[in-house]
Design brief:
single chain, mainly beta, five-stranded parallel β-sheet, 5 strands, about 10% strand, globular
Length: about 120
């Protein structure tokens, strides 16, 4: 898929969604309507950013963006108090970047690759 079908928007009470291994180039705005979403897998796409409005997904417990070219995370990510696991492996982040997010969200277990000297 290179975009999410419009019909998916009808599933407002969806709790788990796996859109991994597609060709999504952006975070599908329709996903922000899924207020009951608990688990979201978007790994192995081509997503270059997460929306600032991601905090609308208040009940999100698990987020997987592994192997997407996302250079930074939106500030509103810190408002996801239910987020237990965040997978960002396969994306090169420096030690300062990783430590910043680990400190800002102590309730979340982050999964990063070993730090590099590339992004801070």
């Amino acid at each position: 898929l290179d975009q999410v079908p419009d019909s998916l928007a009808r599933l407002k009470y969806l709790r788990e969604l796996n859109l991994s291994r597609n060709k999504l180039s952006s975070f599908p705005d329709a996903l922000l309507q899924f207020v009951e979403l608990r688990k979201l897998s978007l790994n192995r796409n081509e997503i270059s950013r997460l929306p600032e409005e991601i905090d609308r997904l208040e009940k999100l417990e698990y987020l997987d963006v592994w192997d997407n070219p996302i250079p930074n995370f939106p500030e509103n990510l810190v408002h996801l108090k239910m987020l237990n696991e965040f997978h960002a492996e396969g994306i090169k982040y420096g030690p300062k970047f990783q430590e910043k997010w680990i400190q800002r969200m102590p309730h979340t277990k982050f999964f990063f690759d070993a730090p590099c000297d590339c992004r801070e």
